Amino acid sequence: MHPFTIYVVWHPLFADGKAYAELIYQTYSRNFKEPFNRSLGIPVYYRSIGASGSEDEMPKSIDPNVADHTGIVVLIDDSMVIHRDEWRDYLEELAGMDQEHDHLRVFPVAISKNAISVNTSLSRKNFIRVFDKEKQEQKARFINISLAHEFCRLLHGFGRASDNKPASLPRLKLFLSHSKADGVEITKLLKYWLQEFTGLQSFFDATDIPPGESFGKVI
Questions:
Q1: pLDDT grade, residue 30 (50/70/90)?
Q2: Are 78 and 16 in contact (CB under 8 A)?
Q3: Contacts for 153 with CB less than 8 Å, ≥ 6 apart
Q4: 79-84 own/partner pairs: CB under 8 Å, 24+ apart
Q5: What pLDDT does residue 158 have?
Q6: Does the pLDDT at position 207 exceed 50?
Q7: Residue of 1, 87, 112, 161 with fewest CB within 10 Å of its CB?
Q8: Which residues contact 191 (CB under 8 A, 6 or more apart)?
Q9: CA R_g for the chain
Q10: Of 144, 121, 127, 120, whose CA–CA distance to 198 is shortest?
Q11: How confident is the model at residue 161 (pLDDT cuts 50, 70, 90)?
């Protein structure tokens, strides 16, 4: 059993779906454009067309018990929304697994504004809203950053909002270490970027330790 497995689901008529899936594959499994570089080696599987290769056939079901942790990324564009009746059972199955298994999470990605209406069960989840970004480069980076944060939370075993335990849903926190001589300004820029473009919290002693407090105790 592998410790972590990723699945990427998209409608076969979604033109950029394969490109996004390959981006996720290259980030978490291996970069096939640079095969000799080190890679994370996390298994990434695609779910778009049927096992026979037909676009009219639903993708193969996902087994929730083949890995210690499973992340399912659902790329939802207008094609999936238009064909939501055909995809209803498949999406309901994914939503059901998300509710039944603590080690599995479904991460819906809203490629279009209409994505929220694709399925009643999935619509209860918070989507990664890619449609807010204008450029393709921004969309790709936003997906990667958002998924990296959520995958880490899943692997750390953080709970769900539905568990009614607010303390069990912390965001990941980065400790920003810097040189006192010339690293403060660079660290400030990094802290701003983290706040604006990621879901991460950060700790920076220059701004997060109140005056008069002990460095050691606060850290």
A1: confident
A2: no
A3: 171, 172
A4: 79/11, 79/12, 79/13, 79/14, 80/10, 80/11, 80/14, 80/115, 80/118, 81/112, 81/114, 81/115, 81/117, 81/118, 83/11, 83/13, 84/117, 84/118, 84/119
A5: 62
A6: yes
A7: 1
A8: 176, 202, 204, 207
A9: 20
A10: 144
A11: very low
Residue type at position 96: G
| DSSP conformation letters of the chain | -EEEEEEEEE-TT-TTHHHHHHHHHHHHT--TTSTTS------EEEESS-TTS-TTSPPPPPPTTSEEEEEEEEEE-HHHHHTHHHHHHHHHHHHHHHHH-TTEEEEEEESSGGGGGS-TTGGGSPPEEGGG--SHHHHHHHHHHHHHHHHHHHHHT---GGGT-GGG-PPPEEE----TTT-HHHHHHHHHHHHHH-S-EEE-HHHHS-TT--HHHH-
The pLDDT of residue 172 is 66
> Which contacts qualify for 49-55: CB closer than 8 Å, 24 or more apart?
49/12, 55/12, 55/13
Tell how far CA 207 is from the center of its chain: 29
Q: Indicate the pTM of the whole model.
A: 0.76
| Mean pLDDT (whole number) for 9-29 | 94
